[in-house]
Amino acid sequence: MKNKYNKNENTEQEKNPFVQIPNQILTSEKLPDEVFRTLCVLLSFRIKDNPTFPSLKTISIRRHKSINAISNHIRVLRDTGLISSKKRGYSQSNQYF
């Protein structure tokens, strides 16, 4: 689906229509469904084992959630040790591992 914020969204999803999810995440009872879906979106940006750096705005558009909700989901993912992040600088998106 193309939208005014991300003109190439169709192209990205056509290139990578599937996301690999580790089994430990699939079977985790500690991870709320909403947070799991946000993790899936983060994983969809991954190319091999390289870090990703989508903005909160981009993730929120794909998830149809507010930026605040996405920020909370990412905090939960960091707290559970499923992801780590690094700030890249002023007015740049974070890098996720």
Radius of gyration from the CA trace?
A: 13 Å
Structural class: mainly alpha
Shape: globular
Distance between the termini: 26 Å
Strand order of the largest sheet: 1-2
Please provide the count of β strands.
2
Largest sheet: 2 strands, antiparallel
What are the low-pLDDT stretches, counting only 5+ consecutive residues below 50? Answer: 1-5, 7-11
SSE order, one letter for each helix or strand: HHHHHEE
Mean pLDDT: 77
Count of DSSP-assigned helices:
5
Q: Strand percentage, roughly?
A: under 5%
How much helix, percentage-wise, in residues?
40-55%
Overview of the structural elements:
By secondary structure, this protein is mainly alpha-helical. Helix content is 45%, strand content 4%. It has helices at residues 9-15, 23-26, 33-44, 56-63, 67-79; strands at 85-86, 95-96. The chain has a two-stranded antiparallel sheet. A hairpin with an 8-residue loop joins strand 1 and strand 2 (95-96). Helix 4 (56-63) packs across helix 5. It is globular and about 35 Å long. The chain starts with 8 loop residues before the first helix and ends with a strand. The model is unreliable at 1-5 and 7-11 (pLDDT under 50).
Key features of this structure:
97 residues, mainly alpha, disordered N terminus
